[in-house]
Amino acid sequence: xxxxxxxxxxxxxxxxxxxxxxxxxxxxxxxxxxxxxxxxxxxxxxxxxxxxxxxxxxxxxxxxxxxxxxxxxxxxxxxxxxxxxxxxxxxxxxxxxxxxxxxxxxxxxxxxxxxxxxxxxxxxxxxxxxxxxxxxxxxxxxxxxxxxxxxxxxxxxxxxxxxxxxxxxxxxxxxxxxxxxxxxxxxxxxxxxxxxxxxxxxxxxxxxxxxxxxxxxxxxxxxxxxxxxxxxxxxxxxxxxxxxxxxxxxxxxxxxxxxxxxxxxxxxxxxxxxxxxxxxxxxxxxxxxxxxxxxxxxxxxxxxxxxxxxxxxxxxxxxxxxxxxxxxxxxxxxxxxxxxxxxxxxxxxxxxxxxxxxxxxxxxxxxxxxxxx
Length: 373
Fold this sequence. Notes:
The chain has about 375 residues and is of the alpha/beta class. It has 15 helices and 8 strands.
């Protein structure tokens, strides 16, 4: 009997990841349209379909309007940056493409995609499925069990990591996957505007959960804490409890688990060909549909006088009048103590011009972590 293999894709998490993967070299077609998010999403979808061959699949979207979390906490995600216009424009196109793939899209008013995925994953398990939740977001770790896995795009390279129970426990340094919620409740999650406890990072959260097991037990035993940590925890009890609530993915969303609707179907080649021709995805059309699209006549576009647009490749300047790093004399110094920091500040204060660059684990500001400055 064929294994029933369900893939549930967190649409916006993957769309954001695709967009930021091309942020330094965006894909611009002959009409001046930025197709980075669409192109990246289609490539990711294709990789999953070809390599993993799911028997069932769905793409879950966050709904328009507030969710139950917004209704309970006005500040929830209030500080998140405005959605880039490119992503706003890309979502309807991506939905058209998903429809051409004959893959269902699911969104439930009042609930986020992770709640919908969590609910469907639990229902699928009862129906005998192995479920893969495809997302870069770490909070999904709380849903992992013997038959439900995280299917997480790798941060710095192509491919995916499959996280089961042991992988999630090792990643967070916890004894049970349910403690992912306690970890996020203490250390917070900037991507979702979950505040956590001020001054408590991942290492401290790991130590507290290892000692007390849960946030509730920690708050009942704050007399065992000492110094600044005791003050921080006792001074933010309600914020910590609220953070745990916000980090908890619901698994009782009112959504039906329809096996027939989730069954993978053949793609609508004609419809997909038309979309790819409009987007000028020539190589994708040839690779996926085995059909060479019609040549696209380039039209004048408004933009930089020196912009060089390609229909299928990221924009790469052919020449530059700027000085390159290789032509400059440079000296590298590591600032890792207060004396060196004071010296750096003095140097910057006396400089006419300087630049600061963050080094992170990836390009997506919602999921990447800071490495250095």
